[in-house]
Design goal:
The chain has about 475 residues and is of the alpha/beta class. The chain has 18 helices and 17 strands.
């Protein structure tokens, strides 16, 4: 059986945490979820392709259709997210109409709103939870035209009714997943705005997070991590088979288990893998010994979740860190020769205009190389979203997926700061941080390629021109 996985282009949405220009320019990562699904299908004896229409320059629907017709698949596969649901649905509708092929969707959204997703006539099948077991069984049943009712972790339609088979309650074994099908991806096209080398890719070595940060949806995912040896095996495959020279670990918190990270670092060095890498970390899970190991194995950047510059606000979101610890670890990381990026929230629970100003000033005072400022929003399954549902008396994401409400900014009942001011101060934070002459000079002198220069220039120009998407006339 042949399956074509399609990744439609991304477009900024009003309910996002990022300002428009950051959404466009911050990263162009590979669709790792589709790459996992493709390799699972291939291991089961099926043929697969991935058409990434989001790569610069993006592919039109007509070009994607042409590639599908050349491949002649039996089924089309898509990855659904809350943000991109309607745009992806538009692509599904077009391609299904033109090809008459059955469609298959997956990703976390199916765990949250399977019935709502399946109400759309363009969608025939869905994978709920991990595709490791259910996808091969479903593809085989479709191919052989056999009964699918006993397959766990899928949803489908039968006689006009939506059937939802919950996934197996057994915990997924992350170590038994095959490596993503990077041979189906244009690895030379991927980057982040601050990546330096090609080819570039992303990796996942753990899922979930046991921390209790009130704004984050990842805490609801049970933490599980791959063994160090398997992680190093994948890094080595990336290096030798795909000429990848830079990797960004997309784990929510890469440094959760210190000894596992030390083993990964030692494995990279033992196998002489000359690759640079970056990761996300908490300041309370990093020390001098670990930083030395990370640096010696190729770590060039660490992204720290700083969030706020006011201790009371940090306590409000149950971050579990102090301002002193943040400053100490950022300084220590820089001392070790590793670049730092700080993630910050604007409009966090309890935020006032004054505390937002403190956060911006704190960001400016830290020894950071980069910063990303997010508007605090209510993501599905978070404590903040439960507050929104209580205040509004509605489940916005359910309505959005059903197609009965518009794209809109959700209320922020956890702060008295207006949407207008959250937007204004987010943009102001970016401008204050990046438009310092010394920082502009420092970043520009570290640029290693014309392509990186173009990305940086587009972002600077975009931040200079950006205006509020709330139609308040800018900042």
């Amino acid at each position: 059986m042949k399956i074509a996985f399609i990744f439609p282009p991304f477009a900024h949405k009003r309910f996002e945490e990022d300002v428009d220009i950051v959404s466009q320019e911050f990263a162009q990562p590979p669709p790792l979820g589709l790459a996992y699904a493709a390799t699972i299908a291939e291991k089961a004896g099926h043929k697969a392709i991935i058409i990434d229409a989001n790569c610069r320059p993006g592919l039109s629907k007509q070009e994607v259709l042409r590639r599908i017709n050349v491949f002649k698949p039996d089924i089309l596969g898509f990855m659904l997210t809350a943000y991109m649901f309607r745009q992806t649905l538009e692509w599904i509708r077009f391609l299904k109409e033109m090809t008459k092929l059955p469609t298959l969707v997956g990703n976390v959204l199916l765990e949250l709103y399977p019935k709502e997703v399946m109400t759309h006539k363009e969608i025939d099948y869905g994978i709920i939870g991990s595709a490791q077991q259910s996808l091969p069984l479903l593809l085989s049943a479709i191919k052989e035209k056999t009964e699918i009712g006993n397959i766990k972790g899928i949803c489908y339609k039968e006689d006009g009714n939506i059937v939802i088979n919950p996934p197996d309650t057994l915990k997924e074994n992350f170590d038994t997943l095959p490596f993503p099908a990077r041979h189906l991806l244009p690895n030379h096209k991927y980057y982040t705005i601050i990546s330096k080398s090609k080819n570039f890719t992303i990796m996942m070595t753990s899922k979930g997070c046991p921390s209790k940060c009130g704004f984050c949806h990842v805490k609801n995912i049970p933490y599980s991590a791959r063994q160090a040896e398997g992680v190093v095996d994948e890094i080595e495959e990336c290096y030798k088979k795909y000429n990848i020279r830079e990797i960004e670990f997309f784990d929510p918190v890469f440094t959760m288990n210190k000894m596992r990270i030390v083993d990964i670092c030692k494995g990279i060095k033992k196998r002489n893998i000359d690759v640079s890498w970056a990761c996300r970390a908490r300041v309370d899970q990093v020390d001098e010994e670990l930083l030395d190991e990370m640096k010696s194995s190729g770590c060039t950047r660490i992204y720290y979740g700083v969030e706020c510059g006011n201790q009371n606000i940090l306590n409000n979101i149950s971050k579990g860190i102090t301002l002193d610890r943040i400053r100490k670890i950022v300084d220590l990381t820089k001392k070790k020769g590793i670049l730092t990026l700080g993630f910050f929230l604007i409009g966090a629970p309890g935020d006032t205009i004054e505390s937002i100003k403190e956060t911006i000033q704190f960001a400016l005072s830290l020894n950071l190389d980069y910063a990303q400022f997010h508007k605090t929003i209510a993501k599905p399954t978070t404590v903040l979203y439960e507050q929104v549902k209580k205040v509004t008396g509605r489940d916005y994401w359910k309505e959005y997926i059903l197609g009965i409400t518009n794209e809109e900014r959700l209320p922020t009942p956890w702060t008295e700061v207006s949407d207008r001011d959250i937007e204004r101060y987010t943009i102001k934070a970016y401008r204050k941080f990046y438009f310092k002459p010394s920082r502009l000079f420092k970043i520009s002198t570290g640029i290693k390629s014309f392509e990186e220069f173009n990305r940086y220039l587009r972002s600077v120009i975009g931040l200079w021109k950006v205006k509020s998407d709330l139609k308040y006339g800018g900042v």
